[in-house]
Structure formats: structure tokens, C-alpha cells
Amino acid sequence: MHEDATIGVSRRSIVTAAALVPLATITAAAADKSVFSPAEMRVVEAVVDRLIPTDELGPGARACGVPTYIDRSLAGPLAREKMAFTAGLTAIDSAARSRHDMAFADLDDAKKDALLAALEDNQVAGFTPDSRSYFNRLRQLTLEGMFGDPFYGGNRGFAGWDLIRYPGPRLAVAPADQQIREPIKPLRTSAHGGRHGG
Fold it and tell me: Is position 45 within any domain?
């Protein structure tokens, strides 16, 4: 979200929390399943696109595959959250239709931001336990997908790591790199032994 947006999440504030983002372990089987219907995926894509939009610093969450990360997570290790999560997506769309007579994905950016800010401020009904908790979970999963290992479906093209200047996992660091006088050359590989950022 841009610096002057109402939700209070910017690229700069997001990157400060990126190092603390836990990763869900996603099985290979989960990568082949899809939890979201096409309508639900539209909501997910529209939400993450406003939480971390594409801007002058690089691609946003949607372009980086965050919806894929969330989908795979809910198909695998977070399966117990699937019903509550998809119910929340329906509630977001219902709130958009109630307020603006349009689906959330069809709103302009200002109206999307205002609705997401209302969720964060706990001012939207229809969520269990409440809209603030749902918003926080959405934001957490967006951060995980944006800055986690590309193996899990997000961080496409290593764009999230580039944003926080994380050079990638490595077993050893040369003495010159330890001096941190110049940026460390990125190692374009995931911790799982592949180049999953494509």
C-alpha cells in the first residue's frame, strides 16, 4: 500500500516485519489442489494487490504469486482454516456489494482501500470472530507469500527478496561479503535446492 493510504501498510513498513515471517510447510500434493473458486480467487487477488501493490519499487503481491501461496497453504497445512477463510472472502464481497453495489474486485483502488481499512478497524460485520482478526490473517499470509521461499508458490522471480535486499540462502559467506561494504550478489535459488522464483 502506498505511503498515504488509509490502511497504514506500506512497502517500507512491510519490509521491517519480513524477517519474522514464518513459513508454512506446503506438501507437493497441496501444490496440485486449488481451494478457491474463480470468484474467491478474484477477491484474494484484489486484496493482496492493495496490501502490496506494484509500484516504483517493484512488482506487488499479486504479480509475485501471493494468491498461489495462500491457495496452496489452505490446501495443505492450513486446511483447517479453509472454511473460515473462504467465508471471509464472501463477507468482503458482500460488504462491497452492500456499500457500492459492486464486487470487491471491481471497485476502484480508493474504495478497495477504504473497505480494507474498515476491516482493519473492525467496522465490518459478517466475520468470525471479527473483521480485524480476518484482516490481520490476510496480511500475515500476504507477507509470508511475498517474502517467503519461492518454493512455496509466492515470491515469484525472487522479487520479494530483492525488495528487502535478501541475497538468498547460502551455506557459507565469503570474508569479503561479511564486511557488507557492497550488496551481496543474490543467489537465485530456494532453500529447497531449486530456482523456484520463475
Answer: yes
